[in-house]
Design goal:
The protein is mainly α and about 550 residues long. Helix content is about 70%, strand content about 5%. The radius of gyration is 23 Å and the shape is globular.
Amino acid sequence: MNKKLLTLLLFFVPIAIFAQEKGLDERINDWFMPKAVWWENLILTSIPIGQYNVPIVLLLLILGATFFTISFKFPAITRFKTAINTVRGRYVDIEKHGVDKLYDNDEALDVDDIKDTIRDESAHGEVSHFQALATAVSGTVGLGNIAGVAVAIALGGPGATFWMIVCGLIGMSTKFVECTLGVKYRDVGKDGTIYGGPMYYLSKGLKAQGFGAIGKVLAGLFAILCVGASFGGGNAFQSNQATVQISSLIGFQGGASGFIIGVILAFLVGIVIIGGIKRIAKITEKIVPFMAGIYVLAALIIIFAHFSYIGDAFSIIISGAFDPYAGLGGIVGVIIVGFQRAAFSNEAGAGSAAIAHSAVKTKYPASEGVVALLEPFIDTVVICTMTALVIIFFNMDGTSMQSVFEYGAAGDSGSSVMLKSDGTSVGGVDLTTMAFDSVIPGFSYVLTIAIVLFAFSTMISWSYYGLQSWKYLFGRGKTADIVYKVLFLVFIVIGAAATLDAVIKFSDAMILALVFPNMIGLFFLFPRVREEMKRFIDAINIKKEALEDGHEDITKHM
C-alpha cells in the first residue's frame, strides 16, 4: 500500500474508534464556539456611520471594489469578451511564445521544451487557464452558493440577494487586479513548481515600490490568516454542511455522527491533497463543470416551473433591497448581510483565488486577470441568484406573494433561520434542500451528491491555498507539508462535529480577515496592473493586425 495512504489510515482509525463516545460532537462544539465568537467580534469590528455600525472590513471591500471598477473602466463589461476568448485559447500562441517574437520572427516557433520537467520552459506555469479557473471556481462555487444564500435570505430577506449581485459585479474588478498581480510576482521553483498569491505580490511588489518592510509584514499576516481561512471557510464550513445533508438523508444521528462522517470526508480529501496542484486541477476541472451543471439545471427547471412568478420575485428582491423587513437594522443591515455573504461566496478582495491563478501557463499576467473576472460572475451573479430565486419561489404560498416563512424573524439574535407559521425553523443547507424538493420530489438525493461534491472540491482547492501560505511561513520542506495537511484534515472533523452557528462565525471572520492585508497591498500595486493590462491588449492587437495582413493563426496548430 502507498505509504502516504497508510499514514492516513493509521491517523484516522484510532480517532474513528474514539468517536463512538456519546456526546463527542457536543463537546467539540462547546470547545469551538467561544473561540469562533471571539474571532468574529474582532474581525467584524464596526465604526458608527449615522445610526448604523458598519464593519470596517466591509467598507474596505465596497470602497476598494468600487475604486477598481471605476479605475479600470468597468472591466466586468469591457473585458468580458476578452476573458471568454482567453479561456477558449484564442491567445494561447502569444501567451506561450510572446507576440513580439511570434509574429515578427518565425524562428521563435521552434522553441523547445526541456524534457522531464513539469513545465513548458517558454511559459512558466503548471496548469491551463481553464484548469486554473476551475480550481479557483471550485474554491468559491461551493456551499456558500447553497447554504450561504439561504443564510443571507433568512437574515436579510430577499433584498440581500440584490446586494449580493452588486457585490459580485464590482468584485469582478477586484479579482482582476489581485489575480494579475498573483501571476506577475509569482516564484518559480527549480523544478518548475509555482509559488504565488498575495504573500508574494505583497512582499515583492511593495519592496519594488520602496515599502519592503511593510510588504513583508503584510505578506506574513496574510499567510497566517490564509492558513486559518483554509481551516475555516474553505474547510470546516464545507464539511459541516455536507455532514448535515448526509445525516439528514440517511438518518445517521447520535453523539458522534458528525465526527464519524467528518473522519470519512477527511480521509477522502487526504487521498487527493497529497498529489498537489496538478492532481487538484485535474480533479476540479472534471468535478466543477459536472456539479455546477447538475445544480444549475435543477435550478433552471424550478425557475421555469415558476415562470409567471419571475417578475414578482425580482420585484421583491429589488424592493427588499431598499425597503427591508423590520428588525434587520434597516437598509444598511440588509447591505451588510448581502455583502458579507457574497464576500464569503466569491472571495473577491480576499486574495485567495490569486494563489490558484498564479500557477497558470502564460507570459502575460493580465491574461489570467481577465480570466479571473469570470469567477464572481459565475459564482455570485449567476449561481447565487438562481439559488435565491428557488428559495423565494419556495416561500410563496403557491397562489400569491404571501410568505410561508417569515424573513428575518430571528435577525436580532443573529440566528440563520427562517420561521414557519407553526413556529418551526429551518436554515442553511436544509432550507435550500426543501426548496428543491418541493418542485423536484426526491431531488434531495441528487442535491446531496452535488453538495458533497461542492464541499469536496472547495476543500481540496483551499488545502492548496493554505499549503502555499504555510510553505511561505515555514519553508517548502516535506515536514512542513505533512504537518499542514494533518491539521487541515483535523479541521474537517471539527467542522463536521460543530454546529452551523459556530462554524459560520469562525468561517466568515477568517475569510474576511484576509481583506485587511490584501486590499492595502492592492491599493499600492494597482498601477502595475494597468501596465500589464496594456501589455496584454497591445499583444492581442498586434496578433489581430498580423492576421488581417494574412499571417496564419498559429493557435490552429497548438
